[in-house]
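2 proteins. here.
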Amino acid sequence: QEQLMESGGGLVQPGGSLNLSCTSSGIVFRFNTMAWYRQAPGKQRELVASIAGHGDTNYGDSVKDRFTISRNDGENAVYLQMNSLKSEDTAVYYCALRFPTTRRWAHWGPGTQVTVSS
């Protein structure tokens, strides 16, 4: 079954760190653009970070200098290292995949909850 799967979410105190992972058993990440999105209650889903097949990265303004996206195509995995977490980072985080010649995100994971609270 082709699907993305996120892991690594949880409860963390403000100022803390979490590392999210995205893997798949049926979808190959190599050459494809990968991204992390998030959606907080009552808000629209927003782009957190993306990484192209060749490694170029892009970040949302609210997470620049705090979050780092990376990929390991050999392990078919994408990661999101989140540092200096704030309460406003609380959201469900989703992994997404886009094929090189398209603009639509073709695959999504079910999401993992990140809660930043003292």
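next one coming up
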Amino acid sequence: QVQLMESGGGLVQAGGSLRLSCAASGSFFSGNYMGWYRQAPGNQRELVAGISSGGSTNYADSVKGRFTISRDNAKRTVDLQMNSLKPEDTAVYYCNTYSPHFGRNFWGQGTQVTVSS
């Protein structure tokens, strides 16, 4: 199995910054796709940003230009730098990876990000 552990959430004022980190362990391979999702109360879980093993990235339109995803394959970590945060960014953020070996997604436990206006 794959274990994902997030850290770095918290409370920040609008316009501020936070950096989320996720560390993978277990049967995780550096070639796996990794991503960050978020879920606000009453909303469905949505993709925030994703990154391939080669470094190709994709972002939700709502965070383009403000968030940056990066990964360190040797350390098996993926980070999300969030700048110019808005109250609508408030959500639980989840680290995600898809394992072709197991044929399924794995999720972290989530970390709360709250942006006050």
